[in-house]
Amino acid sequence: MITRWILPVILAIALIAVGLWGYNQYQQNMEYRNYMENLYQKSFYELVGQVGDIETKLSKLMVSGDQAQSMIILSDVWRQADAAQINLGQLPLGHLALVRTSKFMNQLADYCYYLTKKTGQAQTLSVEEMKNIGELYNNCTKLNGELKVLVDSINSGGVRWGEIRQAKVKAELNEDSENVIVKQFTKIERTGIDYPTLIYDGPFSETLQQRRDIRIKGEAIDQKQAQEIAASFVGKEKVAEVKNGPQTTADIETWGVYIRKKDEEGSIFVSVSKRGGKVVNMISDETVKDSKISLDEAQRNAEKFLEEKGFKSMVPTYSQRFDGTLVINYVYKQDDVIVYPDLIKVKVSLEDGDIIGFDARNYYIAHRERDIEQPRLSISEARKLVSPNLKINSEAIAIIPTESGHEKLCYEFKGEYGGDNFIVYLDANSGKEVNILKIIIDENGSLTV
Question: What is the pTM of this model?
C-alpha cells in the first residue's frame, strides 16, 4: 500500500525540481538579456551623441579663422570619430553591412589627425582641404539624420537590440526585415556615405595599413578559448559572467568577449586575436566618479600591469588626462633604442588606479626583434646638425615610422624654442631632418602634432 504512493511522490518531487531549475534558468536568461541589451543601448546612444558632436564641431571648423582654435576642433573630431568607431563595432550587426559607415569614421579620424598635425606646424588649411571638410560635414549630417530617425523608431516602437542577436541576423542585412534597427542601418549603408577621395600622407591612411605585416602568429583558437583567455587577462577572481561578443575582421581578426565583473559596477569588452590568442584590446565601461590618486601612481599601476601581462622593456612616452582617467602611451625599447612603432596604450582610472583600457593593436602589428645596425653618425655629430635655435634638453636614438610606411633609425632631440617644446628627428645615417613634432602641454598631459 505504501509502495503505491512512492512513485507518485518521487515524480511530484522531480517535477517540482525540474520546474524550479527551469525557472532559475529563465531568470538567469532574462538577466543576461537585460545585461546585453543595456550594453547595446549604451554603445548606440554614445554613437549617436558622438556623431552629433562631430557634426557640430565640423560646422564650427568651417567658420573658424583662428589656427589654434582649428587645431583644437580637429583634435576633438579625431578623438570622437575614433570613439564612434569603437561603439559602432560593439553593436550586434553584421560586419559587412557596416563597412561603409565604419570606413567613413575611420577616414574622418585619420584625415582630422593629419590636419591636426598640419595646423600644429603653423600651416594653414588649403582650399581643397576645406572642401574635403565640407564634404565630410555633409555626410556626417546625413548620417546623423538617419541615426535620429532610428532613435525615434526605437523610442516609439520599443524595439530591442537583443532581437537582432537572438534572430542570428546574417552579415548581409536585409532592408525587408521587420526589425526597424536592421532596416535603418541597411538604409544607412546603401544610401549613406559618399565620402570624398582624400589624398594625404597621414600615418594612419588605409594605404599604410594595407602595407603593414601582421606579426601575430600561432595556432587558431575558437570562441570558447577566447573566453578563457579574456577571463584570465581580466583576472578570473573578478569575473562573474563571460559571454560572446562581436567579432572583427579588420587587419587583426579577433573574437569579442563580454565580461561582467563580480562587483557589478561595470562590464568589460575584450578582443582576442583568432590566431595566437593575444588580447588586442580591452575596454571597460566603468564610470569614474572622482580623481583620487596622483598621475605618478597611475603610471606606476600601468607599468606594473604591463609587466604582469608579459610586456617587457616598455617605456612611457606621452600621456593625456580625460574625465578622471589617464591614457599613457608606452613604446618598446630594444637595448638603448626607443622603438615607436611598437606602441601600447594603457588607460588608468584616477579614482582607484584600476586599468580600464588597453590597446596593443599597433604593438602586435609591428613588434619584432630588429637587427639594428650601428649608425654612421655619432650622436655628437648629429647634435651639431640641429638648429642652434633649439635649446636641447635631452637626446636619444629611436626607430620611428615614416609616412611611406617604413621605419627609420633616427636621433631624437627634445628641446625648447620661444617658450614651446619640440622634438627633432635626424636620420642617424645621413643627418637629414626627418620630422619635427611640436609638443602641446597642458594640465591634462601632452600631445604631439
Answer: 0.58
Angle at the Cα of 208 (from 202 to 212), degrees rounded to 5? 145
pLDDT in tens, 72-130: 888 888 888 888 877 777 777 654 446 667 777 877 887 888 788 778 777 777 777 88
CATH number of 293-368: 3.10.450
Q: Are 67 and 117 in contact (CB under 8 A)?
A: no
Weakest-pLDDT range from 116-130, 218-232, 234-248, 392-406: 116-130
Note whether 444 and 321 are within 8 A (CB): yes
CA terminus-to-terminus distance, the chain: 91
Dist. CA 107–CA 151, nearest whole Å: 25
CATH number of 379-448: 3.10.450
Task: Please check whether residue 421 is in contact with residue 439, taking contact to mean a CB–CB distance below 8 angstroms.
Answer: yes
Architecture of the domain defined by 212-285: Roll (3.10)
Domain with CATH 3.10.450 in the chain: 212-285, 293-368, 379-448
Distance in angstroms (rounded) separating the CA atoms of residues 225 and 429: 46
In this predicted structure, what is the pLDDT of residue 236? Answer: 87
Lookup: cell for 328: 599613457
